[in-house]
Amino acid sequence: MCLTQHEFRLLHFLMRHPNQILTREQILDELYPHDEKSVIDRTVDVHVSKLREGLFFSMRWLSGL
After folding, report:
1. Around Cβ 31, how many Cβ atoms within 10 Å?
2. Which end of the chain, N or C, is less packed with Cβ atoms under 10 Å?
3. What is the residue-wise DSSP string for 43-54?
């Protein structure tokens, strides 16, 4: 599975915080630590959506082996 830099960082961040509810702001702070918050919070939704999609298709591919 190929991940963008942000998708990889998001996956890593989520794996470091299992069973925790994370806010968009916490995720934005992790993905864009030096950004002046010019990134909108809906950006997190897009990253999560793409990560879910990639994981879903990877799992389907693996289950077909």
Report:
1. 18
2. C
3. HHHHHHHHHHHH
Contact 6, 47 (CB under 8 A): yes
List the pLDDT tens digit at each of the 65 positions of the chain. Answer: 788 888 899 999 999 999 999 999 899 889 888 766 667 778 889 988 988 888 887 776 667 65
**Backbone φ and ψ of 12, nearest 5°:** -60, -45
Cβ(61)–Cβ(54) below 8 Å: no
Tell me the whole-structure pTM to 2 decimals: 0.74
- Distance, CA of 41 to CA of 57 (rounded, Å): 26
